Amino acid sequence: MEKVGYLKAEDSQRTLSDWFFYAVRAGVIFSLVCLFIPGLNPARVSGMISSKLSLFTVGVSYSSLVSQFGRAFRKEWITYQDVQILYASALVVIVGVVMNVANGCLSLGNTKMKKLGLKIGLGGSVVELGGMAGIYAAYLRMSQTSNPDKIEPMFPGVYWVILVVFILVLILNLIQVIGLSKVPSEEKYHMETKFSLFLMLLPFIALCAVFSYLPLWGWRYAFFDYKAGQTLTWDKFVGFKWFTQLFRNSATVRDVINVMKNTLAMSGLGIATSWLPMAFAIFLSEMKSNKFRRFVQTCTTIPNFISWVLVYAIAVCIFSTDGFISSLMVNLGVWDSGKNMLMSNAHTWLKMWAWGTWKGVGWSAIIYIAAISGIDQQLYESARVDGAGRFARMWHITVPGLMPTFFVLLLMSIANILTNGMDQYLVFENAVNSNSVMVLDLYVYKLGIQDGSIALSTVIGMLKSIISVILLFGANGFSKLVRGESII
What's the helix, strand, coil split of the chain in %, to 5? Predict the structure, then answer.
């Protein structure tokens, strides 16, 4: 009975300890988020500091911080030492947060690993509080300058929120250090596989969140009458004005129809010929000479790493008035004078498809080459014994083995049917072919950057993203209905 009571008490203590660790991790996540969101920057202790600077920027980019006080330095309203204190304090807070992040990661391990993490976390909490004290000292120094009205000293209210979180994390770490049982010296550091895999995946999840989901915050511009350089305030809120403007303005409707026609046509050509990389990979794998195969694969992969600007330079050298083809035709007497074939609107869609295929077919074939290497070689041996020729083996073994990969890439292509990219069409566009080469990405760029219509371009970008998601799920549902397999 005593043993049962002891085990229950130990389980209860372990549960309480887990809750403490959950609270610490929540505090760590909040601290990490505060590093990168300008609105949660406790180091903005002066009105001269841009509201767009985050605590991370203040702590790692001294030039960005100093540039905010250019006039104040010249007028000697403030000294470099005042700004250096703020910079150093922000950097110290960042170091402390990183140490607590390490604590949060190590808390997923065994008791010995948790002990190590808590020690690092305690040090990190002390460092964080030291950095916050330095920020407060920088605020006091700016408040006591010779001309404080010009410096506009201010104390962000979020400072106290962050300070309280840091103190709570320190207290929880201290309680955990005292409460955890002693670790036998022979125990080794250990973490369950699921947690170690999660930590390995975590940086990629963070990058995905930063570059794929955080930009969605920019969708708010679609609901405001916003011009570049202005401050986004509620008095500029216009609701769904730009959404209706997209369909009520006849000129915009005509432009959008033309753009969608070009986009769907070029994407359709790409989808209709999406089997080319697979065919190229199959024939490449059938080459007997390894040296020649590597040579062909290298030559067809290199164009993927050439920028579209250089591709256009190559096109100019070949197809311009003084290019290779014109010079050859003039020297042979076929043409009286050189012709600039780039300044033509004939077959623009096919030309853009041809350049894109030349640039990307070798790179796209790599995934199929990898898939071919995963096909069971015994199938080929059995087919060879049964008398199947090379093309029969390719058709009945290689192609079926590549079909799952092909359908996954096909579904992704369908989901991205409205995404053609912008670089290729931007460099090949000219006054003659502009009407035929204007795809959606290029149209959004010109509408937002050149014409300054940020709100309308945001609306079109939103609709593009929503349609792409609908197409992805629709294509996935169709695949599941027809093939019985899905990618989601």
Answer: 75, 0, 25
CA trace torsion 401, 407, 409, 411 (10° rounding): -170
More confident residue, 154 or 230: 154
- Determine the Cα–Cα distance for residues 269 and 349; give it in Å rounded to an integer: 8
| Interatomic CA distance for residues 383 and 375, integer angstroms | 13
Res 7 pLDDT > 60: no
Buried b (16+ CB within 10 A) or exposed e, 67-96: ebbeebeeeebbeeebbebbbbbbbbbbbb
Q: How far apart are CA 450 and CA 262, in angstroms?
A: 20
Query: 57-66, 302-311, 474-483: which has the minimum mean pLDDT?
Result: 474-483
Pairwise CA distance, residues 369 & 277, whole Å: 10
Q: What is the band of 16 on the pLDDT scale with cuts at 50, 70, 90?
A: low
Q: Which residues, at least 6 apart from 473, have a Cβ–Cβ distance to it below 8 Å? A: 488
pLDDT reading at 10 higher than 50? no
CB neighbour class for 271 (10 Å; exposed up to 12, middle 13-18, buried from 19):
middle
- By CB atoms closer than 10 A (0-12, 13-18, 19+), residue 205 is exposed
- State mean pLDDT over 382-397: 88
Task: Please tell me the predicted confidence (pLDDT) of residue 6.
Answer: 38
Is residue 50 a contact partner of residue 68, using CB atoms and an 8 Å limit?
A: yes
Residue-level pLDDT at 5: 44
Give the H/E segment covering residue 70. helix 70-74
> Measured between alpha carbons, how far is 442 from 448 in angstroms, rounded to an integer?
10
Q: Are 460 and 246 in contact (CB under 8 A)?
A: yes
Q: Where are the alpha helices (DSSP H) in 180-306?
A: 193-208, 241-248, 250-272, 276-285, 290-301
Question: And the tokens for 461?
Answer: 């970008």
Taking the C-alpha atoms of residue 65 and residue 59, their distance in angstroms, rounded to an integer, is: 9
pLDDT confidence tier of residue 14, bands split at 50, 70 and 90: low
The residue to which tokens 């992969």 are assigned = 301
Retrieve residue 10's tokens: 């130990």
* DSSP string of 152-190, one letter each residue: -B---THHHHHHHHHHHHHHHHHHHHHHSPPPPTT----
Question: pTM score, two decimals?
Answer: 0.72
Q: Provide the token pair at 170.
A: 């320190």
Q: How many Å from the N-terminal Cα to the C-terminal Cα in the chain? A: 52
